[in-house]
Design goal:
This protein is α/β, with parallel strands linked by helices. The chain is 37% helix and 14% strand. It has helices spanning 26-46, 53-56, 82-85, 94-106, 118-130, 133-136, 148-163, 180-184, 211-227, 255-267, 337-352, 355-376, 418-430, 455-473, and strands at residues 61-65, 68-71, 76-79, 139-143, 168-171, 194-197, 238-241, 244-245, 251-252, 272-275, 299-302, 314-318, 380-386, 389-394, 433-434, 436-438, 444-447. The strands form 4 sheets. Strands 4-12-11-10-7-5-6 form a 7-stranded mixed beta sheet. A 4-stranded mixed beta sheet has the order 1-2-3-15. α8 links the parallel β5 and β6 (194-197). α4 (94-106) runs antiparallel to α11, α5 runs parallel beside α11 (337-352) and α12 (355-376) packs parallel to α14 (455-473). The longest helix has 22 residues, at 355-376.
């Protein structure tokens, strides 16, 4: 039976967070608000224009536990951003803190480059224990720089070195990181050595039909591109995709399509790279998202939750691809001992307490209730997700529906409404709920709660989100301070 956190901070009714503070007196409350505003002003004056979350979420966190965050001004929030999916166990979980303290108290070195240590050995052992057995039995692991984007770079370098080829197959809507090579494989790239393929989706299917038929057409297009000697796409070094596109708008790939990609690449000796940076460690309802389809990839890219809230990234790959020369891919901070200890504790806790299975159950409940909300509100075009990776796409209910291949249809998807999604995010924040935005036009409200979310907290999240969306649908919302946003977090 899964063990979840208790509500460290009491869960109250929607709207109670606005103006509700633990002041300890009016004077202390005023000082706290002044300190809060001062920190935000100094951040705006000193930090780069590239900052992202700070624009839409004017919070100064000072304490956090589990799902809850307390700001410098005394307000408390339910955090469904979870460090862009990094916090599988939420903030400051006791087993993570204990693991970190144990290393600190032991006198062990904290940074050892790529030397072997007991802490690293424990992490690698636990990681391999969680991998699909057919993959783990022939796997090698490469510790990278501490961000997922560096692991993507390493994966692409690896398959290029192993195959002697250069091109890469990637998908529309993809997000693989912010460094040059990772950006090449992401959906907004230009002037790259990457062939772009259609990613299957129901609501905005590139072929206008969705479902199994739309996914099958995408697979056939991929085969045609690879087998047509005049397609302009030479035999590539590898294919990379996300089992659920996060920044692309929380779009799960159908299991049948994932199996087809595995068949297509295997038949042509094309290494298959699966980016599990955000989908891994129980997020989608299985420990690794590839387990839904049962495929065995050639390469898996892992980061975010595997470090237990601290920076850590690895590439795990089939042993016959291990053609690296010494130093072919390195990084000074690939020996982060605290992250490995925190990661070991997190991986073991998720595995031992069945949190992936719980994510599947809680996620199904959330999707069902949110789809009920969508049936009542025309500004919610689609609700989708897998496990505790959930998205609501906001649309213009008065906009013209997109025509289908058979002609105009009142059931076609309506234009994306990023301004409504931003309004929902602001209204959620007023109600003490932190959510993210994503999707092609930042029109998708995203939920990434920790896997430890309790039933009571799940109800509170759903109530506050429903109240926020309803307020926006009625036109009862406030204008924003700054609607700018960024990608799903620097890797």
């Amino acid at each position: 039976m899964a063990v979840t956190e208790s509500a460290v901070v009491p869960v109250g009714a929607p709207g109670e967070f606005e103006g509700a503070r633990d002041d300890g007196g009016a004077g202390e409350g005023e000082r706290a608000r002044a300190a809060h505003e001062g920190i935000l002003r100094r951040q705006a004056a000193r930090e780069s224009a590239a900052r992202t979350y700070a624009r839409a979420l004017p919070i100064v966190p000072v304490r956090a536990r589990g799902l809850t965050i307390e700001g410098a001004d005394g307000r408390r929030y339910l955090d469904c951003l979870s460090g862009a999916g990094t916090l599988a166990l939420g903030h400051n979980h006791p087993v993570v803190l204990e693991a970190i303290r144990k290393v600190l108290d032991s006198g062990a070195p904290l940074q050892v480059l790529d030397l072997a240590t007991p802490v690293k050995d424990a992490f690698t052992t636990e990681l391999f224990r969680t991998l699909p057995p057919s993959f783990a039995e022939r796997a090698r692991v490469q510790f990278c720089g501490p961000a997922g984007t560096d692991a993507v770079e390493a994966a692409v370098k690896l398959v290029r070195a192993a195959t002697g080829r250069t091109g890469v197959l990637a998908f529309t809507g993809a997000y693989h990181g912010m460094t040059a090579g990772a950006l090449e494989a992401s959906g907004g790239a230009t002037d790259v050595r990457v062939a772009r393929l259609p990613y299957p989706q129901d609501y905005r299917c590139p072929f206008g039909i969705g479902g199994d038929r739309g996914a099958e057409l995408g697979a056939r297009w991929t085969e045609s591109l690879l087998d047509d000697t005049r397609s302009g796409v030479p035999n590539p070094a590898g294919m990379i995709f996300e089992p659920v596109q996060g920044e692309g708008g929380v779009i799960p790939a159908p299991d049948s399509w994932t199996r087809r990609m595995r068949e297509i690449t295997a038949a042509r000796s094309i290494p298959l790279i699966v980016d599990e940076v955000q989908t891994g460690v129980g997020r989608t309802g299985t420990f690794w998202a590839v387990e839904h389809s049962g495929i065995t990839p050639d390469v898996m890219v892992l980061s975010k939750a595997i470090g237990g809230s601290l920076p850590l990234a690895v590439v795990v790959y089939r042993d016959d691809l291990d053609v690296w020369q010494p130093g072919a891919h390195a990084g000074t901070f690939r020996g982060n001992q605290l992250a490995m200890a925190a990661g070991t504790a997190t991986l073991a806790y998720v595995r031992e307490h069945g949190l992936a299975e719980r994510a599947a159950v809680v996620g199904a409940r959330m999707l069902a209730q949110l789809r009920g909300l969508a049936a009542e509100l025309t500004c919610v075009g689609d609700v989708r997700g897998r496990g505790l990776m959930i998205g609501l796409e906001l649309v213009d209910p008065e906009g013209p529906p997109r025509p289908t291949p058979d002609g105009p249809s009142p059931d076609g998807p309506r234009p994306a409404a990023p301004e409504l999604a931003a309004a929902v995010q602001r209204e959620c924040l007023r109600r003490g709920l932190i959510v993210e935005l994503g999707g092609r036009r930042s029109s998708v409200v995203r939920l990434l709660p920790p896997l430890t979310i309790s039933d009571e907290q799940t109800s509170a999240v759903l109530d506050r989100l429903a109240d926020a969306v309803s307020a926006v649908a009625r036109g009862d919302h406030r204008p924003g301070r700054d609607g700018a946003r960024g990608a799903d977090g620097p890797r």
